[in-house]
Amino acid sequence: MLRNAFLTALFIHGLVVNAASSSSSSEEDDGSSEHENEEHKKAHSHHWGYTDQLSWGSVFNDCNGQSQSPIDINTNTAIYDAQLPSIKLAGYDLTDNTALTLLNNGHTLQLSLPGSMRVVSGFDRIYHAAQLHFHWGSVEEPGSEHTIDNVHFPAEIHVVHYNSKYANLSEAATKEDGLAVLGAFIGIGLHENENYEKILSALTDVSLEETKTEIPGFNVRHLLPNSLERFYRYTGSLTTPPCFQTVNWTMFNDTITVSRKQLAALEDTLKMEQNQLLSKNFRAPQLLHGRRVVSSFSASPEPQGPKIIPLTEAGPGTRVRASTGAGLAGLSRGDILAIAFGALFAVTLLAFSTYAYQQRKKYSKFKKDSRQNVIYKPATKEEA
Ligand SMILES: *[C@@H]1O[C@H](CO)[C@@H](O)[C@H](O)[C@H]1NC(C)=O
Ligand SMILES: *[C@@H]1O[C@H](CO)[C@@H](O)[C@H](O)[C@H]1NC(C)=O
Ligand SMILES: *[C@@H]1O[C@H](CO)[C@@H](O)[C@H](O)[C@H]1NC(C)=O
Ligand SMILES: [Zn+2]
Fold first, then answer.
1. Strands, E, within 54-152: which ranges?
2. CA gap 363, 357 in Å, rounded
3. Which ligand is in closest contact with the Cα of 168?
4. Range of 106's domain?
5. For labelling, which of 17, 118, 203, 347 has a CA lying 20 to 30 Å from the CA of 276?
6. Exposure string (b/e) for 29-68, b if CB count within 10 Å is 16 or more?
7. Residue 326 lies in a domain
8. Which keywords belong to this entry (predicted)?
9. From ligand 2's centre to the CA of 164, what distance in Å?
């Protein structure tokens, strides 16, 4: 029976190894299918895709620029800037008689927003909202665009605003002070996010490329993290062609969570050209080229051990909730797989040692009783 347990453990182990290696080889396929993409690109030269992001610059010059987005945010080198004005939003609480257009544009899921939604504090001018959209990965791969200390989150939301001194988004997009994007990381939580459901429940209506639907207005503020106080700021670009370097970026430190099921719906419903799944629509982090990332908060290390919390500070519950959220969200699928491996290996090792110990005990017992010596067979023979 013990031997059976051991063999079963080995078998499961083998299955997991196979699954893992086949999933990593399918990632390599992305590279080898470049040939196909090349041909496709020739046929539709204005088209671009995420599998050929290294060649965006050959058609869209700005994509080769020195102030590109996204970037990796290194929390140790971000510089605290006490002067950064805090962000205040207005007009985000839309009533349900405002119809919002939800569009699958073949690159992302995009919700158009009325210009009455605006950022009224945080920048030198008021910025009007134009649209919001998402970036995500796949079941195997987290797909935020920005990374925190080189770690991806499962997904990311971008709320795009344009400077009120320009007539509209397209006019502002080419101006140095044209755009302000508010971005936030989306992780996995235990509960369904009702606010995200207002968009995600309409996913199946826009599953085909270039299809749209209308959804009733709601409080768009609730798609952003609870706290907007802690954020990173840097100067960057659109993360899609034409990659204009006109974005004043804000990435919030507080994160959002959706349920695993909701994330899976986002990753698994939309189609792009040739009816392929629209997933992994994130650009790789770009070089900083000397740019600085500033933060609106000083990153004090997490409290170690007991600490007296001043009455004026937020209660300990808030801190625990926030850090648990980030911890869960920050756990990549790779980490989870690694933990699973570790556990399986431990089980295998335990089963094997127990089995070996049992055999040795049997062996020494047999050795003592010389009459039974003849029936002893080494276990390895039976297993071969
Ligand atoms: C971005 O916004 C900050 C805060 O208002 C401002 O100091 C900075 O000049 C802006 N950068 C650009 C490129 O507009
Ligand atoms: C944006 O504004 C410019 C300048 O006023 C105008 O020419 C253009 O048609 C507008 N574009 C859209 C999409 O409204
Ligand atoms: C938030 O800030 C803390 C402190 O620097 C950092 O450890 C954490 O990784 C940050 N998380 C995000 C999502 O920015
Ligand atoms: Zn984006």
1. 72-73, 79-80, 88-90, 99-104, 109-112, 118-121, 127-136, 147-148
2. 10
3. 2
4. 48-300
5. 17
6. eeeeeeeeeeeebeeeeeebbbbbbebbeeebebbebebb
7. no
8. Glycoprotein, Lyase, Membrane, Metal-binding, Signal, Transmembrane, Transmembrane helix, Zinc
9. 13
- Residue 47's pLDDT band (cuts 50, 70, 90): confident
Token pair for 126: 């008021």
- Give residue 138's identity as a one-letter amino acid code: S
The candidate with the shortest Cα–Cα distance to 101, out of 219, 220, 212, 196, is 212
How far apart (Å, rounded) are the C-alpha atoms in residues 158 and 281?
Answer: 13
Residue 254 lies in a domain: yes
- Would you say residue 362 lies in a domain? no
Task: Decide: 248 in ligand 1 pocket, CB within 6 A.
Answer: yes
> Is residue 224, in this structure, part of any structural domain at all?
yes
Counting the structural domains of the chain, the total is 1
Q: Which region, left, alpha or beta, applies to residue 257 given φ > 0 means left and ψ of -120 to 50 means alpha?
A: beta
| Its pTM surpasses 0.85 | no
149: left (phi over 0), alpha (psi -120 to 50) or beta: left
Q: What is the pLDDT of residues 182-236, one digit of tens each?
A: 999 999 999 999 999 999 999 999 999 999 999 999 999 999 999 999 999 999 9
Structure tokens at 189: 């939580």
Catalytic residue among 44, 107, 222, 289: 107
Q: Per-residue pLDDT averaged across 327-355, rounded?
A: 45
Residue 278: both structure tokens together: 């629209």
- Ligand closest in space to the Cα of 182: 4
Q: Is 81 in the pocket of ligand 1 (CB under 6 A)?
A: no
The alpha-helical segments, DSSP class H, found in 163-202 are: 169-172, 194-200
> What CATH number is attached to the domain comprising 275?
3.10.200.10
Token pair listed for 254: 């507080």
